[in-house]
Design a protein that fits this description.
Elements lengths: L9 E2 L4 E2 L3 H11 L3 H5 L5 H34 L17 H40 L8 E8 L9 E8 L1
Antiparallel strand pairs: 1-2, 3-4
């Protein structure tokens, strides 16, 4: 069996079908987040993507800098040197156990921020590709989906509800 290769756009009665559109949208989103959404002409989604990626980036930086701070204090204290949580007269405001616990918690928070950022990055690529696929579907008025709730008039005292789904082509 021979494979059929199509180059360019396919004209149909419903419009122009571009088989490369979803892959282009995914590629653009992978190169620069939000660019696939702009390629799909959904410009309002790009700032949402940027904000969704900026939030875990911000928390990653905050948790990473705090982790490094507590890690440095822990190393200094283990070596018998003065750290930022020890005053000049040798009184510590934070115990060694607290420094260990803070490092562990901040490392987990940092790693979760990184994981959520990667997940959001992948989801925005998938969203751009799926949106490009869906933009090419026929959505004229002849296609309809009309759910309706119908009450049973015979059993009025104990109502029963049914669901009717109508679809037209």
């Amino acid at each position: 069996m021979k494979d059929i290769k199509i180059k360019g756009n396919i004209s149909t009665t419903e419009g122009v079908y571009n088989p490369l559109s979803p892959s282009k949208a995914a590629f653009y989103s992978a190169i620069f987040p939000g660019m696939g959404q702009m390629y799909n002409e959904k410009y309002w989604k790009a700032p949402i993507v940027w904000a969704a990626l900026a939030i875990p980036t911000y928390y990653y930086q905050v948790n990473n800098s705090a982790y490094k701070r507590f890690r440095t204090a822990y190393k200094l204290r283990k070596n018998g040197l003065q750290d930022e949580f020890t005053s000049d007269n040798g009184i510590s405001s934070v115990s060694l156990q607290t420094l260990e616990t803070a490092q562990k918690q901040l490392r987990e928070n940092r790693d979760m921020s990184l994981l959520s950022g990667v997940i959001i990055y992948i989801l925005q690529i998938v969203e751009a590709s799926v949106n490009a696929h869906l933009l090419q579907f026929n959505t004229d008025d002849n296609l309809s989906f009309k759910p309706a709730l119908i009450m049973n008039p015979i059993r009025f005292e104990t109502p029963s509800v049914g669901l009717v789904i109508k679809y037209n082509f």
